[in-house]
Specification:
The complex is a heterotrimer of chains A (489), B (478) and C (95). Chain A is an alpha/beta fold. In chain A, 40% of the residues lie in helices and 12% in strands. The chains are: A alpha/beta (489), B alpha+beta (478), C alpha+beta (95).
């Protein structure tokens, strides 16, 4: 048995039956990381030594009956934009190369409360700005299905680590598609919950009104389990929703009979790769077979949503990233004679190209004379996007689209053309604009063997319906048993 | 052309630190004077990933200030970010309010030289204070202390309605009194919890358009504000008279040289890029919320003044003086609960206590003793335990240490000697030592008696009861 | 809208970023490209639509005025690039 092939619910089963111990599990993953990290480059910081120590400790306590909890000792990977007290938290930026977080993010507290064990901080696009994890200051993460390709982004490290079995699951964050798109690229399950379901406290902000923490897992059941851990109201985040706690595993009914699925034709237009389209169309047929009612609808928002996204995200980012100024923490350029030098040199040397580009764009759209034309207008379009989704949801339970217009592309292929890179998010951003939940699950591979992701969009705070829809499809198709990453060089 | 042909136009932006226990967006304490960076947390230090949560008291206090300055209260308000870089501003943006301040369109009535005038209040909004820059005398650098970062402020913006430094002085005093009365700010100017940005321009009398204004930031004493306005008015008129133009700019008032300096940094054209803070949700105030605050306001200075005029028969000047400060007015009320001599209480507050405050450059809020202590002091004079000369000394001591007047008197052995035997002893001693004066008195020189009493007072270090001395000398000299 | 070089430099300065001479052309092109795309939104009819600023269904989320002392101030001070007497050292600020 290869422990690292297992899902978390399978690991739980084996722990319960005493077929495995907590340390065995952690050792297996640490060995796997040691074996694969040189190829995949998924982690910025590894905390495997501490993790091993911790796993022994937790195992002892579990054996003595001092701690209970079905997730005690389960390893996890954390995207390097979530603060863990005492651990380096870099956002994949030179700016925070030596920043040691002095506090825990709320999701980390929740993970700790379950006695789960973080194995390390995963690579990402710098400050979560990118769709390929290539803008990381430290390294380029490779796609386990083809090492010459990107894992998607911005949470590419988390996605690749799960796909390569280096962790059983991981946390990521999604501002415009940063969980769903890499999940799609890496052939795993990724969930971006409804805005407000998971606390953002301790998540280093990119765009506050769009950022949301979510999950990377091997299957939908694990998604439900991990969502149970991280969801919930938090006093420290005023945008966090006051909703009753749910058990999402209960939503997995393996039944979609009568489920009304809307398929917006605009998401299958010119920019979408033919093979991606075909895979999705097959999945649609599958849903029909399973008894769902599929209807084509019109939802002409994708381009507006993307334009809106770049205006709002960059505007918020330009302000959110002001605090990285070389004064209180992070990179301070050694080249300065006065205060102004500290600001300008620290920021110019500490940020990478893409981050600077977005800060400049965001500063531009907020600056006097342009605010109304761009920022204010974008906020109005945002209202429009929301109401268009609402209209579709009046008569449908979920919306089905591709996760991305293409499968994973070659490393370096799009790094010189920002706008083309931005178009990778065309299918995902509108959900962030509207605050909706989205689940990406694998639904096939293209002719090169690269996985294709399908996106299921739900109503606000109705994660249950998309989880059940994803689960039912997964049970019927068994993608994981059919396709595995090849680590092709 | 002469200076009289010009009119000065002044508008103020007052920043008052709110007296909440915690900061505006985090749970750190706001106490003044703590060791550097001991009242900080990841939120007010702008550690990456942190989020603000608005303190409910800040909204309540701002609404209170709005109601008592006759403002309209915004039912649908929000917080906005004001973006700029400065080492005392940890997030590189200040969370403030832009186009929907909590309060707007209010006014305050002032009286100058017997004339009443309404000064318009444009708006009152909530925002966070910045940290402090300390100068490092040795290394030529600055040291950032973020204890003050995130302390809640209200900014009260007036209309450019004031025409003289006298009006400004009256406006500021009235505003300060109101904020003190409703207990939203302690308004300690030396600690910077009540400070003003002063906008000054001049124009020819009768001219409709405003002149170009200059702004002097962070002024925190009434005296400096008055001086700075006078200086700036003269300077501007001189520039115009000499054919020059006033430049709109920020100035720094230097109290030592008594002049203003330009602070302009040409490299930095400011553009604050205000936008709604996405980390905070809207503030919606219901009628019920506002009514509830209205119904629970403490008594305001105007109403107290009326009461003093009617109940205690104080003069308008006295009543104005007492009610100008909540602390002095409270002291008066506390003391008159015990003392049956309100006039005396008023006199002590308006003369000796005010004098000591002035001499020591203290604020009424710094007074350590209670109204009860003051009443006791007055009672001790009336009972003849001490003379009023001693009472002044006792009062002085009461400013130093929190002790009862009786204890101070005992410790210093200041009890008035009213014992007949003891007085007689002194009288006889003085008479024996001054035969010439005795002879003079007997020869009809009334003045000699005064001299003898004076000698006796000297002998007893002022503690002898002067009436008794007088009487005793007269009897002995019969 | 065409972005001019001076405008780009002004914006970069507002953001406290310095662009190298050889970068300016590239940034101008990128910015122009992205803005052209962003201008798509100006084709949308938004007459009368209110603005959505993130999560706006909830309001009045306040905190009680109660003190809580943060326990890891040292952890923050250790991150200061230059520290002196528990304060952050910066070059002299001209006021």
């Amino acid at each position: 048995m290869d422990i690292t092939e297992l899902t978390v619910h399978e690991l739980q089963e084996k722990l319960k039956n005493k077929e495995l111990t907590i340390t065995e599990i952690n050792k297996a993953y640490i060995d796997r990381i040691n074996e694969k990290e040189k190829d995949i480059q998924a982690f910025i910081t590894l905390t495997t030594d501490e993790a091993l120590e911790k796993s022994k400790n937790i195992e002892e306590k579990v054996n003595k009956g001092e701690i209970k909890g079905e997730l005690a000792g389960i390893p996890i990977g954390i995207k390097d934009n979530m603060c863990i007290n005492g651990v380096k938290t870099t956002c994949a930026s030179k700016m925070l190369e030596n920043f040691i977080a002095p506090y825990n993010a709320t999701v980390i507290e929740k993970i700790n409360d379950e006695n789960m064990i973080s194995l390390g901080k995963t690579n990402m696009d710098e400050f979560a700005m990118g769709s390929s994890t290539e803008t990381s200051y430290f390294k380029k993460t490779k796609n386990p299905w083809d090492l010459s390709k990107v894992p998607g982004g911005s949470s590419g490290g988390s996605a690749a680590a799960v796909a390569a079995n280096m962790v059983p699951w991981a946390l990521g964050s999604d501002t415009g598609g940063s969980i769903r798109q890499p999940a799609g690229c890496c052939g795993i399950v990724g969930l971006k919950p409804t805005y407000g379901l998971v606390s953002r406290y301790g998540l280093i902000a990119y765009a506050s009104s769009l950022d949301q923490i979510g999950t990377f897992t091997k299957d939908v059941e694990d998604t439900a389990i991990l969502l149970n851990v991280i969801a919930g109201h938090d006093d420290r985040d005023t945008t966090s929703a006051k909703k009753e706690k749910k058990d999402y595993t209960k939503a997995l009914k393996n039944d979609v009979k009568g489920l009304k699925i809307a398929v917006p034709k605009e998401f299958f237009g010119d920019g979408i790769n033919k093979e991606v389209k075909e895979s999705i169309e097959k999945a649609i047929e599958k849903y029909k077979e399973l008894g769902a009612i599929v209807e084509e609808v019109s939802l002409d928002i994708a381009n507006y949503a993307l334009a809106t996204y770049y205006i709002i995200a960059c505007a918020e980012a330009s302000s959110n990233l002001g605090r990285f100024d070389g004064i209180r923490y992070g990179y301070r350029s050694p080249k300065f004679n006065n205060l102004r030098d500290i600001y300008i040199n620290s920021r110019s040397e500490g940020f990478g190209d893409e981050v600077k580009r977005r800060i400049i764009l965001g500063t531009y759209v907020l600056s006097s004379g342009y605010y109304d034309a761009y920022y204010k207008k974008a906020q109005q379009v945002r209202t429009l996007v929301k109401s268009r989704f609402d209209e579709v949801f009046e008569n449908h339970d979920i919306i089905l689209t591709p996760t991305a217009p293409t499968t994973a592309f070659k490393i370096g292929e799009k790094s010189d053309n920002p706008l083309e890179m931005y178009l990778s998010d065309i299918c995902t951003v509108s959900l962030n604009i509207a605050g909706l939940p989205g689940l990406s699950i694998p639904c096939g591979v293209d002719s090169e063997g690269m996985p294709v992701g399908m996106q299921l969009i739900g109503k606000r705070f109705d994660e249950e319906t998309i989880l059940n829809a994803g689960y039912t499809y997964e049970q019927a198709t068994k993608f994981r048993e059919t396709y595995k990453p090849t680590f092709k060089k | 052309m002469s200076i009289e042909e010009y009119e000065t136009v002044i508008g103020l932006e007052v920043h008052a630190e709110l007296s909440t226990k915690t900061k505006i967006f985090c749970k750190c304490p706001t106490k003044f004077g703590a060791e550097p960076n001991t009242q900080v947390c990841p939120i007010c230090m702008a550690m990456p990933g942190t989020l603000p949560v608005l303190n409910e008291k800040v909204v309540e206090y701002a609404v209170k200030a709005g109601i008592t300055t006759n403002c309209e209260i915004e039912r649908n308000s929000k917080n906005d970010r004001k973006n700029y870089f400065y080492p005392d501003l940890p997030k590189a943006y200040q969370i403030s309010q832009y186009d929907r301040p909590l309060c707007k369109n209010g006014n305050i009535e002032i009286t100058v030289d017997g004339e009443k005038k309404k000064i318009g209040i444009t708006r009152i909004h909530i925002e966070e204070d910045a940290g402090k820059l300390n100068h490092d005398d040795f290394g030529g650098g600055s040291l950032v202390d973020l204890n003050r970062a995130g302390v809640p402020l209200i900014e009260i913006v007036s209309e450019p309605d004031m025409r003289s430094s006298k009006e400004v002085d009256a406006y500021l005093k009235k505003l300060k009194a109101i904020l003190e009365y409703i207990e939203v700010s302690d308004c300690k100017m030396q600690e910077g919890s009540f400070r003003a940005d002063v906008n000054v321009s001049v124009r020819k009398k009768g001219q409709k358009e405003f002149g170009t204004r200059t702004e002097m930031k962070n002024m925190n004493s009434f005296r400096s504000i008055v001086r700075a306005i006078e200086y700036e008015r003269q300077r501007q008129i001189e520039v115009i008279e000499n054919g020059g133009k006033i430049e709109q700019e920020t100035l720094r008032w230097d109290d030592v040289s008594g002049r203003t300096f330009s602070m302009r940094d040409k490299e930095d054209a400011q553009d604050y890029r205000y936008f709604p803070d996405p980390d905070l949700v809207a503030i919606k105030l219901s009628e019920e919320y506002i009514e509830n605050i209205k119904n629970n306001l403490p008594e305001l200075p105007e109403s107290r003044k009326q009461r003093y005029l009617e109940d205690y028969k104080l003069t308008v000047k006295e009543a104005d003086g007492l009610t100008a400060s909540k602390y002095l007015s409270n002291l008066f009320e506390e003391a008159t609960k015990i003392s049956n001599n309100p006039k005396a209480v008023c006199n002590w507050i308006m003369s000796d206590i005010s004098r000591i405050l002035n001499e020591r450059e203290l604020e009424p809020s710094d007074i350590k003793f209670s109204g009860k202590d003051l009443a006791e002091l007055i009672d001790l004079i009336e009972k003849g335990t001490i003379s009023s000369a001693i009472a002044k000394k006792v009062l002085d001591k009461m400013f130093d240490e929190a002790k009862k007047p009786e204890d101070i008197i005992k410790e210093n052995g200041w009890i008035q000697i009213s014992d007949e035997g003891a007085i007689k002893e002194v009288v006889i001693k003085i008479l024996e030592a001054n035969p010439q004066s005795v002879a003079d008195y007997k020869a009809g020189k009334e003045k000699a008696l005064g001299f003898l009493v004076g000698q006796a007072m000297k002998e007893t270090k002022g503690q002898a009861n002067p009436q008794m001395l007088n009487q005793m000398f007269k009897e002995e000299l019969k | 809208m065409e972005v001019k070089k001076e405008e780009l430099l002004h914006i970069a300065n507002l953001a406290r970023l310095k662009l190298q001479d050889n970068e300016i052309e590239k940034y101008l092109l990128n910015l122009q490209d992205i803005l052209n795309y962003a201008n798509l939104i100006n084709k949308v009819d938004v007459e009368g639509l209110k603005e959505t600023v993130g999560e706006r269904d909830s309001y009045n989320v306040f905190r009680k005025d109660e003190i809580d002392i943060f326990g890891n101030i040292d952890g923050m001070i250790k991150n200061f690039p230059e520290e002196q007497d528990d304060m952050i050292r910066v070059p002299k600020v001209v006021q």
